[in-house]
Amino acid sequence: MSDLKRRTFFKLGLFGVVLSLVKPTKAAELLTNIKGSRFAATPKRTVISTWSHGMEANETAWEVLSSNGRALDAVEKGVMTTESDMSNRSVGAGGRPDRTGHVTLDACIMDEKSRCGSVAYLEGIKHPISVARGIMENTQHVMLVGDGARDFALDYEYEKVKSPIKEVKKDWREWKKENKDLFKKPTINHENHDTIGMLVLDDYGNLSGACTTSGWAYKMPGRVGDSPIIGAGLFVDNEVGAACATGLGEAIIRIAGSHTVVELMRQGKSPQEACKLAVERIISKHDDLTNLQCAFIALDKFGNYGGYSVYKGFDFALKTDERNEVVKADYNLSWE
Ligand code: GLY
Predict the structure, then answer these.
(1) 8, 104, 195, 213: which is the annotated catalytic residue?
(2) Residue pLDDT, tens place only, 16-35
(3) Which residue in 64, 188, 199, 301 could disulfide with 242, CB within 3.0 to 4.6 Å?
């Protein structure tokens, strides 16, 4: 019996028995009008992910949901699609390396029970998101980094991959020639997608999220961004909603970005308002906003969603029963 059905059973007695026999979404619908019900509206199956590269990932996640799958499986499988795309330069083994030519990957995952797993500075493993889930499910820890994370991945026989790939290595050599002593700020915009973060609400009314990236191109060795940090790159609270981030990780970490968005929703803000307020907080904490692109997407317990960025150009992929499209997010500043 699912959690929803079990709760229904205890709360509503005989009526609960009837409800427990019907599909979870239908049960939630029936409960909507019952006084004292915890459901203010019918949860609506939704997949939302950062950038237009999320469209393909959303398809995969939707397939999982369509076979009565859980949000947790949907977010993992969804972002694995992007990690497998070797033409993507900001996610997975096709991503850009650090200054020394090492592609180091960051990822995290969180489910409806607030269980979470995270991996940072992981090299040579194809699906960091699955390693993050493995840490969540098989260890007492939340986060493993570097060699420890790699040893765990190898022990559990996660698929290995060679990186950087040839084209990326060529670009890196060029970059080295042009930037001997410099550490340029990245320009994270429409052309240079950064991170896939995905949030899913499933038919059982449960939320999960995943976030995975190769991080800041040509970063300092050892640099870790927001994406594997629970509360910064991703946060899920099944009672309220979920949020994830993309963009300059250092700025997102400073305000515990995704946690901030979820807490704003807890205080009654809509997902859209919560993302906007978090972006405004980032803006208020920085004197210099040059190239400081950050964005949040959020999804609440009932399938309401939102997205907002510092600069124009951020978009997100949305899939529901009615919609399957890239949505241009609202923003605070234009690049000009
Ligand atoms: N948001 C990805 C990173 O800063 O690494």
Answers:
(1) 195
(2) 444 444 444 444 444 443 33
(3) 199
